[in-house]
Amino acid sequence: MLDANNFDRLQALISLKSRCLYWAEFCKYTSKSTFFSDFNDEINMPLIYILNDEFTNISGRDEIGLLIRKCTDNNKYFDYLEINNSNYDHELVHKDLQDIYVWQTDNQNHMAITRFIVSAFSVFEFWVCKSYDIIKSSYKSKNSKMKKLESQLEKYIESYNANDSEALEKIKNEIFTKTNSYVSSREKIDFVLSKIEFVNLKDEKKRDKAKELVAFLFNFRNTIHNVMVNKSGKDFQIEANGATVELLNGRSPNYENYAKFIHSMHFLVDLYSDLFMHLSENIPNFHEFTNEF
Q: 111, 183, 184, 240: least surrounded by Cβ within 10 Å?
């Protein structure tokens, strides 16, 4: 019997996939890889996992044990010392994999969906940042960071001439810690979104929700470095489609409803499709180099 929760997640993923495929059609003759095709690739991972989980569940999972044993019996890759020189009979492997299919499916779904959210946002981050230089070139730079550096250097020279060692040390530290030309991916995305004309997100409330999601996902994305646990020292929370996602310090994400949060990823497609239309013929090619972010 089909699991109702998994069916809900499958519908949310397929809805997201449909939009990516729709937009990818516009690019298929001009570019090998786009935001939409890359985003679609990331959707496929949890989609195929959940589909396979349901297929094996419907069939009763009778063949899984046989397949696991076939993979462990006379396995030519079992060439490690601790395996060859012990009475290891692979029962730990059998038990662990069978537990995954029976008792750990909820946990596996959690990990698959969480990794999908991180990967999907990374696609968004990559492609919007590739557009940064194109959009920036249309606007005269205020050179605020350069002006700040020049001001600090003037103060440094004045303090040097005045033989003020304490002021020299303070200014030197400020120059090295606070003044640089590096532009973070968050700064690039904020700049890009401040310059484009919105069509899909013409409604201000929806646009604000989309930007709120992006801000939340920056913190969500950072959990990839800590086995999906928030180590920032701060708590984060967002409401998406009437359901809450919590990212508490020291914890992995807690979803009130997986499908509703997956559905909120449509905002990333909305944002990029508006950027896609804004760029027109200036859409960056996948093979072009982009600044590190």
A: 184
Indicate the pTM of the whole model. Answer: 0.80
Angle value at C-alpha 129, between 203 and 221, nearest 5 degrees: 80
Does pLDDT of 221 surpass 60?
Answer: yes
Strands annotated E in the chain: 236-240, 243-247, 254-255
Residue type, 7: F
pLDDT at residue number 292 = 41
∠ CA 269-232-229 to the nearest 5 degrees? 70
The string of pLDDT tens digits covering residues 169-211 is: 888 777 776 666 678 899 999 999 999 999 999 999 999 999 9
Neighbours of 281 (CB within 10 A): 5
Q: 189: how many CB neighbours lie within 10 A of its CB?
A: 23
What is the Cα–Cα distance from 245 to 243, expressed in whole angstroms? 7
The residue written with tokens 């180099």 in the block is: 289
Nearest-5° angle of CA 96, CA 101, CA 106? Answer: 105
Beta carbons within 10 angstroms of residue 64's beta carbon: 16
Q: What is the rounded average pLDDT of the residues 280-291? A: 55
